[in-house]
Amino acid sequence: MKLHNSYTNKIEEFIPLEENKVKMYVCGPTVYDYAHLGHARCYITWDVLYRYLKFKGYEVTYCRNVTDVDDKILKKATTENKTPEEVSQYWYKQFTNSMQALNTLKPDIEPFATKTIGEMISIIKDLIKNGYAYESNGDVYFRVKKFSKYGHLSKQPIDQLESGARIEIGESKEDPLDFALWKKDEKFGYKSPWGIGRPGWHIECSAMSRKFLGKTIDIHAGGADLIFPHHENEIAQSECANGCKFVNYWLHNGFVTINKEKMSKSLGNFLTIDELLKKYDSNTIRFFILTNHYRMPVEFSDEALSSAQAGVKRLMNAKRTNIDDGFDITTTAEYRQFVEAMDDDLNTSKALAVLFDLVNKSNKNEDKAYTTLYKLANVLGFNFEKLELTSEEIQNALKHVSVVLGETFDNIEDLIKFRKKARDEKNWEIADKIRIALDESGILVKDSKDGTVLEAK
Predict the structure, then answer these.
(1) pTM strictly above 0.90
(2) Diameter of the chain by CA atoms?
């Protein structure tokens, strides 16, 4: 298996520290607002890596942190007259719901920054003792120039970084490049050897990674926007505190763009996952993301999501047979093709092509094709339960039925009641017209003794 290591900027053979075991850390959310499509790309991408590593037989420990102490959280708490904990707990629940809706697996470990303050203080004390950090008026800063490899991950020489570095008002650094490990904060802070304060953002991940995975880990992943300064600073403080290599493989996913601009909250051009799920199901969002290579930028558009929706329907509409749990899919050519694609730096677009080949074979009743399709699609995180109808699909169907019958329906429940009444009165012509009109709109009508159920075709 080969992966692109951002640190060396090379595609390298993946060799874990311990045979058959993988320690994997992903930078998690800062919980103060809704997660957006950019977050979906990040967490779906690393969900697929997690699933694939387990599929390959590795024993994976996946740690994804929760940043619940941050300037944005404190600002929202002040604005809304709430405690920081009330703000972070509310938005953590929203994030968790969004991740479940996207069918991402829960990490093995999901630590909160506020529960790891002691470990952060311990690392900072080590850095001060070793001469890599210093206290200044209640703040603690890291001496960047003392770490000779600083800038290697982001490919930025120190002199280039120096030209843009500034000391902000209220800061008392030795050097403009130095970054905060601890910030004085008497209102929202915690006790420390340097007074009441709170951790800097970067030290959080170093502490949580070390506590739960150890001083050296196999994989550290996140969005490309975290390369500098977050991941660069993590490397500096971790290696100087621990005296050893921090991460063997750095992996980064590309941005989601709208009109060629990165999707972000600061630019106000983001779509929340909740908003997107009102229009498209989770399989469609996942398909849209996986059609593109994870390292490349992805341009969001309704056309691209509609195309993904059509692709998902092809997968879901494959002729279904009973899943043979005892069948060894490793004996199939498709398995080998799938593994070859995924081993090539997670080439999910090629892996999807293998799934479509299996769709064609399933539709031709080829033996075990559907079992192989089902199992491989699960590695990519597709949910083969019935597709939920989107609000757009429902509205289009209601419009079509209204044209056919000359009747207007406000919602799908009223239409089902109307059709039930026609069936009860044995008015099969009207009932069939509705069924056919819905079928033409891409909606399957299933009647049973328990009632009528509508499914996406």
Answers:
(1) no
(2) 87
